[in-house]
């Protein structure tokens, strides 16, 4: 082994020289051991690599923590998006239900309005019909007849029809001509009735008791009134003979 090149080395004693050489050799061996550890000839670990191992572990922990935090943020974001989507769907469903309820209410209101309108129209038609009927009734009630034998018979027949009293124009006319000749003021002062104080009066020669018993409501209480006389006489004839048409002589 060559002697180290140390300044002043040649001036040292022999003992000192050997000591310095031993120290140098030990240092070189320590350096060689540090560069190539025993039992791992293929490893190339240097002194600079040893302090970096704790730094590498710390970096891995930081990366793992960052990855965990990123996953947590993604999970939270996904949860928020799912919640927002659910809220959006719920709002849309509620809006659709409210729209359906509003439409149903509008349809119900329209149907009710249509029914009310139809009912009002029916009521108006019914009122118009009743009014027309009343007008016709009033017109019938106010029907005018000529003030003569023909008019008296026709008016009596209309009243008899309402009261259900039978008789015909021909039957009434025939008996009037025989009894009074068509004179509404005719009176019989010579027969048995006259002798008994109840003379026959009017177109169909009706005595007072018979007139009062068979008087028809709606006609005057006057035996000389043409219509009242005809109607009372026909009412009596219907009760006794079935109809004035069946009378062909004194009755």
From TrEMBL:
Domain of life of the native organism: Bacteria
Signal peptide from the UniProt entry: 1-34
InterPro entries: Lysozyme-like_dom_sf, Transglycosylase_SLT_dom_1
Keyword annotations of the record: Coiled coil, Signal
UniProt-listed Gene3D superfamilies: 1.10.530.10
All residue ranges annotated as the Transglycosylase SLT domain in the record: 176-246
Coiled-coil residues: 79-122
Protein name: Lytic transglycosylase catalytic
Source species: Streptomyces iranensis
Top-level taxonomy: Bacteria, Bacillati, Actinomycetota, Actinomycetes, Kitasatosporales
């Amino acid at each position: 082994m060559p002697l180290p090149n140390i300044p002043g080395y040649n001036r040292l004693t022999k003992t000192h020289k050997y000591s310095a050489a031993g120290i140098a050799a030990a240092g070189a061996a320590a350096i060689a051991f540090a560069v190539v550890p025993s039992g791992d000839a293929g490893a190339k670990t240097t002194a600079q690599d040893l302090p970096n191992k704790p730094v590498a572990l710390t970096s891995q922990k930081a990366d793992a923590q960052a990855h965990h935090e990123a996953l947590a943020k993604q999970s939270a974001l996904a949860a928020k998006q799912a919640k927002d989507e659910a809220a959006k769907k719920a709002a849309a469903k509620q809006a659709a239900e409210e729209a359906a309820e509003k439409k149903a209410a509008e349809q119900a209101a329209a149907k009710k309005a249509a029914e009310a309108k139809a009912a009002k129209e029916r009521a108006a038609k019914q009122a118009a019909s009743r009014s027309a009927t009343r007008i016709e009734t009033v017109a019938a009630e106010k029907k005018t007849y000529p003030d003569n034998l023909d008019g008296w018979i026709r008016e009596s027949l209309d009243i008899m029809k309402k009261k259900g009293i039978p008789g015909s124009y021909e039957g009434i006319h025939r008996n009037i001509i025989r009894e009074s000749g068509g004179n509404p003021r005719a009176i019989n002062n010579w027969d048995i009735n006259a002798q008994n104080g109840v003379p026959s009066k009017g177109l169909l020669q009706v005595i007072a008791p018979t007139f009062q018993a068979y008087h028809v409501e709606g006609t005057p209480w006057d035996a000389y009134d043409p219509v009242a006389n005809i109607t009372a006489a026909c009412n009596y004839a219907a009760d006794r003979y079935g109809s004035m048409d069946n009378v062909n002589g004194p009755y």
